[in-house]
Amino acid sequence: MAFPKIELHVHLEGTVRARTLLQIARRNGVRLPADSVEGLAALYEFRDFSHFLEVWLLTTGALRTGRDFRQVVADYAAEAASYGAVYVEAIFTPAEPVGRGVGWDEVFTGYCDGAQQAAELHGVQVRLTPDIPRSYPPEAAELTARYAVTYRDRGVVGLGLGGPELEYPPEPYAGVFALAREGGLGSVPHAGEVAGPASIRSALDALAAARIRHGIRAVGDPGLVAELARRGVVLDVCPISNLRTGAVASLDEHPLWALVAAGIPCSVSTDDPAMFGDRPGHRLRGSQATRGVRARLLPGRAARCAVRPADQGRAPAGRRGVRLGRANSRAGRRPGTSGRCSMSTRPGRSAGRPGRDDQARSNRSRFITLTHAATKSFTNFSFASSLA
């Protein structure tokens, strides 16, 4: 049995496949650096993180209308559903299209409409966490936070911080993150991807981060590792992204295993799957780091680690029911959590329908209860990522 999958760290602009990007660019009369699928693919051979950001800005500039934003969400929901995803906590950067003349409301409405379509058409629940781009003026940061709070009732659940962290530390954004928290949103900044442990500490202290996106540089500070484990701060890790941007030299050298071994709960996500040629887990299989993480996910540890980055989340033969049962009971007893979560059935399925659908719903419910206690996402059914 393959487990339902959840993604907590994916940029919607980075989910647009080359063919769709060309279609949208032509529809909007936008010139891209290449005019073929093959040409765009060649652009995605990144030299380093700075080169990745350059390509990101060149390609995402094609997104100009509410129709574009809505299509991006719905298209990725269809892709995510094909590998078993039931929940996606997605990132978008509204200040970028606003800087090209698109209205704030058009951007937010487009993405929120797309999230609604994702549930209606594909049975995938999408929640949104807009990012503040670090290199933009302070007024863009404040407006991002204010509009995020305004659209909270339409599926916006958190506020993020992205972009070049070496040049732009978190402290100047403390005020806008406080505004977002007062408005009921969670804090999910990027930190510790290319900058060191100090960036993560600043995100925790200045932004009151509930989760850290990336966070892999924590391994350079044993005291920080111990603090993250003690506090149960979830790191939303993206191994393939880190490999493609040059943040790590190889998957075998990736810090994920060391972080999990230290007791830090981690989720595994794709980050920018169209740009990195990734989908959950398919390129992690076989690495030493992956085998190590999978080996740790024995009964009683699954709810703590919340990572299954190999083999589509399947437990070793003969242990599946045991792992679910034991981890489920422990998850339900962790302090501060109820261990209970609700989940709507997919369109067209009757809540009272017997047989195979009942079993599928039961499996999903057990999985959600298992992972609810292991992470802090910002919805009524909150759960950690199991993406491979």
CATH class: Alpha Beta
Order of helices and strands: EHHHHEHHEEHEHEEHEHEHHEHHHHH
Number of distinct beta strands? 10
Count of all domains: 1
Average pLDDT works out at: 76
The coarse silhouette is: globular
Strand fraction equals: 5-15%
Give the CATH topology: TIM Barrel
User: From the 3D coordinates, which CATH architecture would you assign?
Assistant: Alpha-Beta Barrel
The spatial strand order of the largest sheet comes to 7-8-9-10
Helix/strand/pairing category: alpha/beta
Q: Which helices and strands, and how do they pair?
A:
Blueprint: E1 5-11, H1 18-28, H2 37-43, H3 49-60, H4 66-82, E2 85-91, H5 95-99, H6 104-122, E3 125-128, E4 131-133, H7 138-150, E5 158-162, H8 174-182, E6 186-187, E7 190-191, H9 197-207, E8 211-214, H10 222-231, E9 234-237, H11 239-244, H12 256-261, E10 266-268, H13 273-276, H14 288-296, H15 302-305, H16 320-331, H17 356-372
Parallel strand pairs: 1-2, 2-3, 4-5, 5-6, 7-8, 8-9, 9-10
Helix pairs in contact: 4-6, 7-8, 16-17
Pick out its properties.
3-stranded parallel β-sheet; 44% helix; TIM Barrel; globular; 10 strands; 4-stranded parallel β-sheet; disordered C terminus; single chain; 388 residues; alpha/beta
